[in-house]
């Protein structure tokens, strides 16, 4: 499995494309808002000859879903999201303009992700990990073969996701990190929703917010 990251929009949100030798691909958390950002995403997909087969959201805060409608329309794929974050997604249209995204285009979820679910594309299988706390329906996507996890806004290098937004809960986030992410092998590479990659072992040992 290969991973390509694009930092998009004013929040420098990490948009991910995952693909393998079959050329099938999934897009996770498309934050592409401007036409230029959308073209950047599209150009890479075309250059690599990829076939986008699904759209996945770790969670539904505005910076992670700005490109949902564009991706669904352009590639004719379904949006997969945990049911507990359906209300989070629905609320984006109400506040997007206040964050400067006046031209936000809403999109609805088509398929529901569940804890422990195996999501397969091409020759790649991702395990869905339910990790609420930053959002009620936050999930992460773990690839066991390569020990890599797309973690969204749960865990950052020396940081954790904020819990002061609607639906946030610091106790639930701590439980999610200790019982789900920190149970992964220490060598697991964490691809966060913002910023640089880290590893599970690094954060277990040194994260000032939650250590194992």
Automatic annotation (TrEMBL):
GO MF annotations in UniProt: hydrolase activity
CDD domains: metallo-hydrolase-like_MBL-fold
Domain spans labelled Metallo-beta-lactamase: 12-194
CC cofactor: Zn(2+)
Keyword Glycoprotein: no
Record Gene3D superfamilies: Ribonuclease Z/Hydroxyacylglutathione hydrolase-like
UniProt keywords, alphabetically: Hydrolase, Metal-binding, Zinc
PANTHER family, sorted: HYDROXYACYLGLUTATHIONE HYDROLASE GLOC
Protein name per Swiss-Prot or TrEMBL: MBL fold hydrolase
The species this protein was found in: Persicobacter psychrovividus
Lineage summary: Bacteria, Pseudomonadati, Bacteroidota, Cytophagia, Cytophagales
């Amino acid at each position: 499995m290969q991973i390509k990251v694009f930092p998009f929009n004013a929040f420098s949100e990490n948009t991910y494309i995952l693909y393998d030798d079959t050329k099938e691909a999934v897009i996770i958390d498309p934050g592409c808002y401007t036409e230029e950002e959308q073209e950047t995403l599209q150009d890479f997909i075309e250059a690599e000859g990829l076939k986008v087969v699904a759209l996945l959201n770790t969670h539904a805060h505005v910076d992670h879903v700005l490109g949902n409608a564009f991706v669904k329309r352009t590639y004719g794929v379904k949006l997969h999201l945990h049911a507990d974050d359906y209300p989070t997604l629905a609320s984006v249209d109400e506040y997007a303009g206040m964050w400067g995204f006046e031209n936000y285009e809403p999109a609805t979820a088509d398929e529901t992700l569940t804890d422990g679910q195996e999501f397969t594309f091409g020759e790649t299988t991702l395990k869905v990990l339910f990790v609420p706390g930053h959002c009620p329906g936050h999930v992460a996507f773990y690839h066991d073969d390569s020990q890599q996890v797309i973690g969204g806004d749960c865990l950052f290098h020396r940081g954790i996701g904020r819990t002061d937004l609607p639906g946030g809960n610091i106790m639930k986030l701590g439980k999610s990190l200790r019982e789900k992410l920190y149970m992964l092998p220490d060598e697991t590479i964490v691809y966060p929703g913002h910023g640089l990659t880290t590893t599970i072992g690094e954060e277990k040992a040194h994260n000032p917010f939650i250590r194992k």
